[in-house]
Amino acid sequence: MIRMHHVKKGYTNPENGSYQTILNIDDLQINEGTHAAIAGPSGTGKTTLLHLLSGLINPESGTITIGDVDITKLSESQRDRFRADNIGYVFQSFNLLDGFTALENVQLGMMFSGKAASKSRAEEVLAQVGLTDRLHYKPSQLSVGQQQRVCVARALVNDPKIILADEPTGNLDPSSSAEVLRLLKNAAEGKVLLVVTHESDVISQFERVLDILTLTPSPDLAVK
Amino acid sequence: MNLTSIVLKNLKKRLLSTTLTISSITLGIAMVVAVLVIQQETERSFNQTSVGYDLLFAAKGSQLQATLNTLYHLETSVGIIPIGVYEAAKRDPRVEIAFPFYVGDSYRGYRVVGTSANFIEKAEPRRGQPFRMAEGRNFERPLEAVFGSEVARRTGHKIGDEIFITHGLSEPAPGAEAHVHDDVPVIIVGILEPSGTANDRAIFTDLYTTHALHDVHLHLHDDHHDHGHGHEHHAHEHSHGHEHDTQKHTHDHGHTDEQHSHDHHDHGHSHGHHEHHSHSHGQENGHTHDHTHGQAASQVINQIELKELDAVLVRMVNPAAAIQIAGMINFPTPDNPLLARNMMRDPFFAYKEDIMAVVPAMQIRNLMSIVGNAEQVLRLVAWFVVIVALFSVLIAIYNTMEERKRDLAVMRALGAKRGTIFSIIVMESAVICAIGALAGLLFGHIIVANASAYLAEMAGIVITAFNIELNQILLILVTVLAGILVGTIPALKAYRTDAVQNLGSGK
Ligand SMILES: Nc1ncnc2c1ncn2[C@@H]1O[C@H](COP(=O)(O)OP(=O)(O)OP(=O)(O)O)[C@@H](O)[C@H]1O
Ligand SMILES: [Mg+2]
Hints:
The structure holds two protein chains of two kinds.
Chain A lengths: L1 E11 L6 E12 L4 E5 L6 H9 L6 E6 L2 E2 L5 H11 E4 L11 H10 L7 H10 L15 H13 L5 E5 L7 H14 L4 E5 L3 H5 L3 E4 L4 E2 L7
Parallel strand pairs in A: 3-8, 3-9, 6-7, 7-8
Antiparallel strand pairs in A: 1-2, 1-4, 4-5, 9-10
Helix pairs in contact in A: 3-4, 3-5, 4-5, 5-6
Chain B lengths: L2 H11 L1 H37 L3 E5 L3 H10 L8 E2 L1 H8 L3 E13 L2 E6 L1 H6 L10 E4 L7 E4 L1 H7 L6 E6 L12 E13 L9 E5 H8 L8 H6 L14 H5 L9 H4 L28 H15 L4 E2 L1 E6 L2 H12 L6 H9 L9 E4 L1 H54 L4 H42 L10 H27 L2 H4 L5
């Protein structure tokens, strides 16, 4: 399903101008139906990895194949469209649009894919995350846990093959945290779900854990 | 949900800024539209009224003034000319049709134009559009009047109403005494349909009536009027000190056909019985308006001598002849003796000392080119306002880019292409300009509607507001296009916004 091969990504250090490698992945394969946690200390490239997988950024070298598409070979706008169609993304910060209601924020998740931004589909996923009675609330009128559930709904609305979640429970209390995780895992049945997290509670929910530092995956992840 | 609803939502979120920028566009476009429509309609109104005629004969003076006075009922008469000019024009085979004008009186500020009945029948206030009666009929004899549509509307008079005309052109100042000819009652027999020209604001009557109003000696006696309407008939002690009066009556070119045509009015009275009352006829006719008026009319015909006019308007069989006649009258010094002999035989040549020949269309063209300069300045100012408004749109949107970086980045992360982000911002600018331009169009026409009353009053130009034409539609399209152009600047900034760097870190 996903294969990263000889992928190198780094940044120029703004202080001294020197190049700094963040990720250097020799070969990483993630099969269909895999649910995995990505763990590692802050600033080690977890978010960068998700950005690479979603096509938001391109690596300096290497290939990233999703399905049978090498997304590093796509143009930027092709990657945009690929992301809209195939990736559900829950951001590290919520990133809901202030001026839009919960329903509209979810519809926004459909806007840029090939499908029409159907209202009933948006309502359906919001019902799935238990927000039927909050459709027309603006983000500022929702609790933090509710906001994160809107984000989950937005990530799910296109029925993507891959769901990437960047610390989805970082700002939540334990019960909300468990709820969001449960929603994600249910929705990602049979799909790829990668969840970045620091929390041991969350890590413990996954049989498979990828340590970003060593890039040593837990045994079930196919790594060569 | 679609891109448009995203755009509208973004605009609604910044309601104040959106409203202000829309208003600035509205203001600019309203000015442009108002200037455009007023200029265009003024020119059209003036041109159309002037094109139907080849020549205007009037007393020597300002050609423009003569044109404005005769065709647009503006200014004052340049002076009087002998009625023989009209007679000559009527006889001349080169002349297709001639209309006489004798003016200088008014009713409640509306000008009374003495002319021939065929002016209403044959003249075209607008090219190809003759006068049409809305009600009643044309005037047929003295003391009958036809009201322009606007006069009828404003005064509220109906057919059959009797009015007393004021000598002079304007309403007297409060307290001052109006010189009302309450001894010369005029009855309204017809009301014209609107023509969109100065004629809508005029009252038309025959030459006898306007002559009667200028006549010091005229006295109408009518017993029926005394009883039926309480009109006291006056002795003629009022002094006619108006300069107009002294201006008139100076030329006397003797009698003409017109004068002798009284004869077929078969009342058998002799002329010049100014001091005598004509008791002897008409009394048996009963008490109807028509009869009393018929009686007064014949008295007018008997007592009034038609001898002068303010202008004669002429349409030639061959318009080229107009130039030749104009040259002969205005510059009667040909080098060629052969031409000189031809001139002597020309019936108009005899009047060369009394009249000038004006080509009305040329006068209007000259006037319009002068007015055009002022109008150009106004138009420049209006466009300047639009340009400033466009800049305000640019700045307003550009200033929001910083705070919107995160929103744009989120959309990018959700799969929006850079191009999509670009078009969202361009559309915001375009929508502001489109709404502003449409509101400006409406507002501009509201200005025109308000100005039209004033213009009608001041210049006799009747402008129809809310007449949206192609060039105004184009103006709106141009504004929207300008909005798109202006929008590309903030849109480019949005286009370049890096998605990853602007997704909030959340920490
Ligand atoms: N645009 C950039 N320019 C320079 N350095 C960058 C840039 N973006 C990220 N980095 C660096 O890359 C490293 C990895 O960042 P990343 O956001 O992937 O970390 P992370 O593992 O998600 O950390 P956290 O757990 O705190 O979210 C960091 O050291 C960061 O400073
Ligand atoms: Mg991170």
